[in-house]
Design brief:
By secondary structure, this protein is of the alpha+beta class. The chain contains 10 helices and 5 strands; from the N terminus they run ααββααβαββααααα. The termini are far apart.
Length: 254
């Protein structure tokens, strides 16, 4: 369903007067509610990346959106994960005929959601999260809807930037700060893997996250090693062997 430019301008104009300094949670709640209304969606939400590189729900228009985003967080699947890792819009037109979404399809069906659209939220050249809308019926997302949600995501980025400037406190503020601190490091590591192993952006991100999990290390620490030229760790045991080898090498040189 095409978005009326006048409605989009009016909605963004109303959100433009929000003051994130008065509280990040209610501000983002209003963004989610307004997105749900403008797009005629059944739910809307916002996810932000944490210090581990994991997308986590930050705000939701209702319980349906929160449950769906919790599912994406738990499974590391869904359009949010794709939009975040590829820095491109990701969509589901009809989950009933798109089997590639695997376990995440069960989450959507369980919540009565059939279609979804996610776009990346970018700040200072890095992706820090996604803005997402959900529909209970199949939906062939119009290019105008995609562009309109991207415009909304730009507003979200501005609000988050204002929150950082105002030194807003609280859980969401801490999550936002972690996202800002780690976005460049993870993007750089993805770029190294893409060039070194000829991977696409999503595969490179999954390799980083998988290596962090298997070695029980933080994603940011693994990303830092990759940007320094080290190979990806494959397991905790392999990591211990690598550390021992490095220590032995240093002893030999000394």
């Amino acid at each position: 369903m095409p978005i009326d430019p006048t409605d989009l301008a009016r909605s963004i104009g109303a959100l433009g007067s929000l003051d994130a300094g008065k509280g990040l949670a209610p501000t983002l709640q209003q963004v989610a509610d307004s997105a749900k209304q403008l797009f005629g969606a059944d739910a809307a939400g916002l996810m932000l990346v944490d210090a581990e590189g994991q997308l986590r729900w930050a705000s939701a228009s209702d319980q349906t959106a929160q449950t769906v985003e919790d599912g994406q967080e738990r499974l590391a699947q869904g359009p949010c994960a794709v939009a975040f890792s590829q820095r491109l819009p990701a969509l589901i037109r009809d989950i009933r005929v798109e089997p590639e979404w695997a376990e995440f399809a069960q989450v959507l069906v369980g919540e009565g959601v059939c279609a979804a659209l996610s776009v990346p939220v970018e700040l200072d050249g890095g992706v820090i999260g996604t803005l997402d809308i959900y529909a209970g019926q199949p939906r062939d997302w119009d290019p105008g809807e995609v562009a309109a949600l991207q415009a909304y995501a730009g507003l979200v980025a501005s609000l988050l930037s204002a929150a950082v400037t105002a030194e807003v406190k609280g859980r969401l503020a801490g999550q936002l700060q972690a996202a800002l601190e780690h976005r460049w490091l993870i993007e750089q590591a993805k770029g190294v893997l893409m060039g070194r192993e000829r991977l696409d952006a999503q595969t490179a991100f999954e390799r980083l996250r998988g290596a962090a999990r298997s070695s029980t290390r933080r994603l940011a620490d693994v990303a830092r090693d990759v940007t320094a030229g080290q190979p990806l760790p494959t397991s905790r045991r392999d990591l211990a062997k690598g550390n021992a080898a490095q220590a032995k090498s240093r002893e030999t040189r000394s």
